Amino acid sequence: MPTVLTRQLSNVPTGPGRPRHTGSRSTQQPAREEILDHAARLFAERGFSGTSTREIAEACGIRQASLYYHFAGKPGILAELLELSVRPSLEKVETIERECPTEVPEAALYLLALIDAHTLATVPHNIGKLYRMPDVRSSEVFEEFEPALQALTAAYGRLGATVVSGSVAAIVNLDQLAGLLIQVVEVVIRIRSRGEEVTRADARAIAATCLRICGVPEERIARSAVTADDLLLRFAEEGQT
Amino acid sequence: MPTVLTRQLSNVPTGPGRPRHTGSRSTQQPAREEILDHAARLFAERGFSGTSTREIAEACGIRQASLYYHFAGKPGILAELLELSVRPSLEKVETIERECPTEVPEAALYLLALIDAHTLATVPHNIGKLYRMPDVRSSEVFEEFEPALQALTAAYGRLGATVVSGSVAAIVNLDQLAGLLIQVVEVVIRIRSRGEEVTRADARAIAATCLRICGVPEERIARSAVTADDLLLRFAEEGQT
DNA sequence: ATTATCTATAGATCTATAGATAATGC
DNA sequence: ATTATCTATAGATCTATAGATAATGC
Predict the structure, then answer these.
(1) Residues contacting strand C at CB < 7 A?
(2) For A102-159, what is each residue's pLDDT tens digit?
(3) What is the mean pLDDT of chain A?
(4) Contact: A180, B187; criterion CB under 8 Å
(5) How far apart are alpha carbons A185 and A180 in whole angstroms?
(6) Chain B residues closer than 8 Å to A209 by CB
(7) Any idea what DSSP says for residue B238?
(8) Residue B237 to residues A68, B101, B117, B240: CA-CA distances in angstroms?
(9) Is B6 helix (H, G, I), strand (E, B) or coil?
(10) Nearest-by-Cβ selection for A213 from B46, B133, B212
(11) Which nucleotides of C are covered by protein (CB under 7 A)?
(12) Contact between A205 and B171 using a beta-carbon 8 Å cutoff
């Protein structure tokens, strides 16, 4: 067998550029995506400051210095991951608030919680938890994303305000309510941290819990669930992802 | 004025041991407590891995190496802080489950949430958030405290199970319920992270929210609040802190 | 003598840059 | 020529230890 052909026969085709020290890449992903993926996993497992550029590189099978060809260091990677984890939620908020029939505000809140829970449940490696980490929040790159998070909180506040019952409003003010609703949706992060899957049923239970917190009676919660399903279908038909 | 008296006249009396390089200590706290206090604040602000022993030492006005006289490094400090933040909650859980009249289970859950929220609200520097940090959870010292946290979750699960209504039980299983209840109580951490105070009214709103999540009707929530007040008084008389 | 600090420093990282090199593609 | 890696390394930390020193207390 001619040795000169060995590399060409490798099952993982090498693109342009010098080959990796490991021989060749292990996945078909572009290097950039591969780095993001491993970084996300490591940040979620050990924290941002608790992960070194060397660890990220090793997970990818490249040398530490090679990261800097693709990213401006750890902060650059973090910025990209934050973007990745906040954009989907925010896009959907806009759609919901624009499209929801005003005659059933409960359905809008239910749908927001449902979609948001689903986003947190499916975002890779549970990176929704990045925002909770103090080292991330005190980093410079975080500032850029803070407004987006506040917009999300504000949306929960607005929808919560339209839904809240009198007896609940007597005890809970609107700022508290928004915080509580987000907090409840973020139980998804807690569940995933324990290594469990978050099912569609879980997401429904969470959305229902949000309405319950606002004091919506059970029969209207059930109705909202049905309406939200319709809305979801309509969005799907309109080509919203 | 005799120079030899200058040190004796200093308003901060020095104990035994070599004086600090800053001249003398800035607080009356024992050095050990001073270190814990600054470490807690820094861990909460910048994360555990995001805080160096040097930063802690500087905050105390001592040299980095001097920390090691009092603690076995950063992990030693962390262990002490974890202990400090979990013990009060756990002690109170035991009291509540032992003393609560079984005829009003809602009051027991209300009380647990109320006391737990209060603990999280008053523990120094919001260190309740230590448990959520991935770098802390993946550290060796954390293992020792995991059982205590699980015991707390289990208590919420048991109390939640006795309280939950049929229509809620149809959607939410008991594991989910325990997670939701803790998650709601931990909204205290979120509020404090935003720099806001958590009032007694906030704690009541949170406790009420827990019952609402379980599907307890409003009038029984109000009744539970009153019963919980009575129980609190009784505990106080019995000398429980 | 005991206590609580200090100074000095070794050794292990960790980040980021400079410049070389081995592929592909034109 | 361009691309994507590599090697080598500087410089900045960061942790932890050894041993000195300046108080108090007996």
Answers:
(1) A 7-8, 14-19, 52-55, 64-65, 68, 73-75; B 15-22, 25, 31, 61-66, 69-70
(2) 778 899 999 999 999 999 999 999 999 999 999 999 999 999 999 999 999 999 999 9
(3) 89
(4) yes
(5) 9
(6) 172, 180, 213
(7) T
(8) 64, 17, 21, 7
(9) helix
(10) B212
(11) 2-9, 13-25
(12) yes
Q: Under DSSP, is residue B37 helix (H, G, I), strand (E, B) or coil?
A: helix
Terminal C-alpha separation, chain A? 51
**Other C-beta atoms lying within 10 Å of the C-beta of residue B57:** 19
Residue A60 vs residues A25, A77, A113, B109, B196: alpha-carbon distances, Å:
8, 14, 35, 48, 42
Cβ neighbour number for residue A217 with a 10 Å cutoff? 14
Of A44, A48, A134, the CB nearest to B45: A134
Residue type, B141: V
Q: Which two tokens stand for residue A34?
A: 């591969």
Q: Is the dihedral of CA B3, B9, B12, B14 positive or negative?
A: positive
CA to C1' distance (Å), from A49 to C15: 13
List chain A residues with CB under 8 Å of B212.
168, 212-213, 215
Say how far apart CA A211 and CA A113 lie, in whole Å: 9
Q: Please check whether residue A172 is in contact with residue A223, taking contact to mean a CB–CB distance below 8 angstroms.
A: no
Question: Among candidates B75, B7, B179, which has minimal Cα distance to A191?
Answer: B179
Q: What number is the average pLDDT over the span B3-30? A: 66
Please report, rounded to whole angstroms, the spatial distance between the CA atom of protein residue A92 and the C1' atom of nucleotide D1: 44
Cβ proximity of A25 and A10 under 8 Å:
no
Alpha-carbon span A213 to A164, nearest angstrom: 8
Helical pair B218-237 and B73-99, crossing angle rounded to 10 deg = 110
Using a CB–CB cutoff of 8 Å, tell me whether A199 touches chain B: no
Name the residue of chain B whose CA is nearest to A190's CA.
B179
As given in the structure block, the two tokens for residue B188 are 């205290």
- pLDDT tens digits for A149-204? 999 999 999 999 999 999 889 988 888 999 999 999 999 999 999 999 999 999 99
Measure the CA dihedral A102/A118/B217/A104, to 10°.
10
Tokens, residue B183: 């998650």
Give which of B15, B20, B19, B7 is closest to B61, Cα–Cα: B20
